[in-house]
Amino acid sequence: MPPLTANKPFPTTEGICHDAYSLRVISPAYAAPSSELNAILQYLYHYHFFKSNGCDEFAQTIENIAIAEMIHLKLLGATILALGAAPVYTANPPAMFNFYSAKYVTYSRTLVCMAEDDVRAEKQAIRGYERMLKLLRNEKVKEIISRILEDEKLHLAAFEHILCSLKS
């Protein structure tokens, strides 16, 4: 099984000042339909099915990825706060509308479909973070996004491994 997190610490938010532009760029990664919050909920939903089907190793991997996503969510929340907004669960903090909804979780019922959903989610996250890096000008925020992106690539490899194993 591939590693699930890059072997280096996360950058801190120290020294990040209010920056409305960077806030708008990174906010969707926090609590939008294809966000860290959604990944956490989706992966924990899938964890339960893998566990109940006796796929303990895969279930543990999925749970560990969900925990890594929780760390990303925590770091993004701290970054949003440093950039000048309250980290409310919306795609556009600090806006108090368009709140996150668990309807965005994929509620597949077969393990193969779940793994396919998770591969798709990681690919979407990677594309989103790569797009953010092209748009961001704030180097400290770019460091944070780059570090999260490294983990997402490892998560994709892990989910692809699970999917390949299920299909063989």
Description:
- The protein has a single domain (20-167), classed as Ferritin, core subunit, four-helix bundle (Ferritin, Up-down Bundle), CATH 1.20.1260.10.
- By secondary structure, it is an all-alpha fold.
- The protein is globular and about 50 Å long.
- The chain contains six helices and no strands.
- It starts with 19 loop residues before the first helix and ends with a helix.
Radius of gyration over alpha carbons? 16 Å
Please tell me what the overall shape is: globular
CATH top level class name:
Mainly Alpha
Low-pLDDT segments: none
Largest sheet: none
Q: Tally the beta strands.
A: 0
Count of spatially separate domains: 1
Examine the secondary-structure arrangement and name the CATH architecture.
Up-down Bundle
CATH superfamily: Ferritin, core subunit, four-helix bundle
Which class do the helix and strand fractions yield?
mainly alpha
Helical run tally: 6
CATH fold title: Ferritin
**Strand portion:** under 5%
Distance between termini? Answer: 16 Å
Q: Into which percent range does the helicity of residues fall? A: 55-70%
Order of secondary-structure elements? HHHHHH
User: How confident overall, as mean pLDDT?
Assistant: 96
